[in-house]
Design a protein that fits this description.
Helix content: 40-55%
Strand content: 5-15%
Distance between the termini: 28 Å
Shape: globular
Mean pLDDT: 87
Structural class: alpha/beta
Number of helices: 13
Radius of gyration: 20 Å
CATH superfamily of the largest domain: P-loop containing nucleotide triphosphate hydrolases
Number of domains: 2
Largest sheet: 5 strands, parallel
CATH architecture of the largest domain: 3-Layer(aba) Sandwich
């Protein structure tokens, strides 16, 4: 295990914890998602720190980022860019949109219409966009960190299943506990604290860390356990439809990333159990009459699935 990498990851978690106070689990989940090369969806009420967390992640990881406030009148060309005729050059010149960044912060993504939401699909899956007949590659690494308000709020559009499946993880922050909220009330403004942040890693170091994730060992017994959990989602006892093979591969990447953050060179069942609700609940629909939310249903399924 690379000692320098572990020191950087520890410093990374510590720095973000000075901005997002009292949320160590959510910070670790977010970092695991990015180390696994996935896109992150943060779903919660306005004002609990969703956008602040996204900013802190991008700055601390040394990534170039752009922010788009999603609204009902946002058009796909506002994201990917557009060609404009320039008289001096006597030709159309492509002006790239904000998606051409290493981190795209899609703020309140479910306030935009379905057509604009769908414009992100190719970028999220293929790390490229097709504009006016040309395919243009996006920077590497490329992440979408999206924030989403609860769907019952006014002016929101539910994300289609195809786009939800592109997000490797969906987390919620929730209200801070009393101690954390007191620290927020007594401390400086979070925007001032963000302005003082310095990158802990460079984008090249992040790419190297992502390569280390792929080296984390996964035993045959652990793969058996993961397959048992995937089979449980498809059994019809818990969910209307089960996980796809792509989702299963994504869960394994996340488990490896979580092990790396913990300083281990192997995945344990605890890694799967800890991240599974955040990794799969947004992809699944509980069966009728379950009487539980998506995450609670996933936790109940985990408890009912024995270790091989």
């Amino acid at each position: 295990m690379n000692a320098n990498l572990q020191a950087r990851l520890t410093q990374l978690k510590s720095q973000i914890s000075t901005i997002i106070i009292g949320k160590p689990v959510q910070i670790e989940d977010s970092l695991a998602c990015l180390l696994a090369g996935g896109h992150l969806l943060i779903e919660d009420l306005p004002g609990v720190g969703k956008t602040t967390l996204a900013h802190a992640l991008a700055i601390s990881l040394g990534l170039q980022f752009s922010r788009v406030q999603f609204t009902a009148d946002l058009m796909p060309s506002d994201l990917v860019g557009v060609s404009v005729f320039e008289r001096q050059k006597d030709a159309f010149v492509f002006h790239p949109g904000p998606v051409f960044a290493q981190v795209l912060l899609a703020d309140e993504i479910n306030r935009a219409g379905p057509k604009t939401q769908s414009a992100l699909l190719e970028a999220m899956e293929e790390q490229q966009v097709s504009v006016e007949g040309s395919t243009r590659a996006l920077p590497r690494p490329f992440f979408v960190i999206a924030t989403q308000n609860p769907s019952e709020q006014l002016g929101t559009y539910p994300l289609p299943e195809s786009q939800l499946d592109r997000f490797l993880m969906c987390i919620t922050l929730g209200y801070p506990d009393r101690k954390a909220e007191r620290a927020l009330l007594d401390g400086s403004d979070r925007r001032d604290a963000l302005a003082k942040l310095q990158p802990v890693m460079s984008s090249d170091e992040l790419i190297d860390a992502m390569a280390e994730v792929r080296k984390i060992h996964v035993s045959e017994a652990l793969l058996d356990y993961l397959q048992a959990l995937i089979a449980a989602t498809r059994s019809g006892l818990w969910f209307v439809e089960g996980l796809s093979p792509r989702a299963g591969i994504a869960v394994l990447r996340l488990a490896r990333a979580r092990a790396l953050l913990a300083g281990r060179n192997h995945v344990t069942p605890d890694d799967l159990q800890a991240l599974l609700p955040q990794a799969i609940a947004h992809r699944l629909q509980p069966i009728a009459g379950a009487g539980r939310g998506r995450r609670e249903q996933v936790r109940a399924m985990i408890e009912a699935t024995p270790l091989p």
